[in-house]
Amino acid sequence: MFRRTLLALPLATPALAQDRPTRLVIAFPPGGSTDILGRLIAPRMTELLGATVTPENRSGASGAVGAGHVAQSAPDGTTLLLDSGGQSVNPFLLRGLSFDYVRDLAPVTLLATLPLVLVVRAEFPATTLPELLAALRADPAQARYGSVGIGARVHLAMAQLLKRAGLRGEHIPYRGGADQIAGLLRGDTPMGFTSPALATPLVRDGRLRAVAVSSAARFPALPEVPTVAEQGFDGFAIGDWLGMLAPAATPAPTIARIAAAAADAVNQPALRPRLDALGLQPAAEGPAAFARFLAAERAQFEALIREEGIRLES
Fold first, then answer.
1. Which of 232, 242, 244, 274 is the most buried (most CB within 10 A)?
2. Residue in 108, 23, 104, 22 with CA at minimum distance from that of residue 71
3. What is the pTM of this model?
């Protein structure tokens, strides 16, 4: 699904129409990849836009709190949203939203993508995805997997993989990635998708074994690990992403300038080691490409959520 093609977007003018500060609303708490990326790109965007870009965390409801705040802000380019893949699933899982993700938010640009890594406990007798699936078919009671929450990308990726393999699994949601990994190491679950930042050190230490990555291409930090698609599931590509949006009525020229500044910022060579450590791969392609990307994602995950009967716990 994800492409690493980078689009060179023209910076028509170095400044926005107004010289007022710009708030970059980060839809998740401090310390996560979304927060870190926002704080890494804000200084360069400030230089290019001629207005101070200030990161501001507004977390809650899987990103919906921050998204709703931006959706209801003035469409003048001074309030932006930095969001992640939850945007593609929230409309189908969260009830009573006061805004519409499609109607009330305008895509600015995709910024970065990251694959998910399918890991098993080091003691589990499987070194490849086919071996893992064979073990689950032989003993369906082992088909338990953790995630960081219902509807999270790691949950949906595993649900999709098991569905395509003709298997059913027991989903065990945890409070976060660290808890999910702790449960896996304890033996609560034998497998699960997780982020590269969590998986890579444990795989290198031999505490976990990586059997597949979820992206269309192999992950540079774990080049020896084949993709899900390479192991018999043609076209399988589910990962996470980070992108920027604005209030829906923001003028197109303003969105274009912001998109160009954001693309320049995320592609700074000096940021590459930090992005690599997070598993983030720059993928800025501008508003039109991001709009198409979001439409395809929503269609994919709406179908999966409905077919699997995935619902948030009441």
1. 244
2. 104
3. 0.85
